[in-house]
Design goal:
There is one protein chain. The protein has helices spanning 2-53, 56-67, and strands spanning 75-86, 89-100, 103-110, 116-118, 131-132, 135-136, 139-140, 146-151. It has 171 residues and is an alpha+beta fold. It starts with a helix and ends in a 20-residue tail after the last strand.
Length: 171
């Protein structure tokens, strides 16, 4: 009898702490692994929303949408922004463009030395590039790049908001 009790004692008493230790170790590893995955996903989601928020084209488009813009008449404009977009990436450059009969005839990127270089992209569709609400229609190139011209000096001024009333005095 003593030998059977001794075997049970060895099996249940001596193994139990080892089993509990291994189980705690396994659970801790699983919890840490899940935590790392959740933090990684949260960081990726934060980065993806920041990319959209930092997109210069989206910022300008929102401003044009909120305020509206004056009509663009014929002439040469040296105060435009030319945007190049590919997916969620956007690059915005200072530039100039010529408008004739309500259509953009040519566009130029301003270089660091103050000179201009003409934008010579092959367009996928040959249609007139008109201007509406201070922004050109989007042009698609053969490289699947989207181009817009923004007439930033045509944005209407910010509308005045309501004035807040003061808090009551104790007098």
């Amino acid at each position: 009898m003593k030998s059977k009790f001794y075997i049970y004692q060895i099996l249940f008493i001596n193994l139990q702490p080892t089993f509990i230790f291994n189980m705690k170790k396994t659970l801790t590893t699983i919890v840490l692994f899940i935590g790392v995955i959740l933090l990684s996903n949260a960081q990726n989601k934060k980065n993806s929303t920041n990319d959209g928020e930092n997109n210069c084209y989206l910022k300008w488009a929102q401003k044009f949408e909120e305020r509206g813009a004056d009509d663009v008449t014929d002439g040469v404009y040296t105060d435009v922004i030319i945007t190049f977009r590919n997916g969620s990436d956007a690059q915005c450059y200072n530039g100039k463009c010529e408008v004739k009969e309500g259509k953009i005839i040519s566009m130029f990127i301003k270089l660091e030395n103050g000179s201009y270089e003409q934008v010579k992209k092959k367009l996928r569709y040959d249609f007139p590039v008109t201007v509406t609400n201070g922004m050109s229609k989007t042009v698609l190139t053969l490289e699947d790049e989207l181009i817009n011209v923004l007439f930033i000096k045509k944005i209407k001024p910010k509308k005045a908001g309501p004035e807040l009333a003061p808090d009551p005095d104790d007098n």
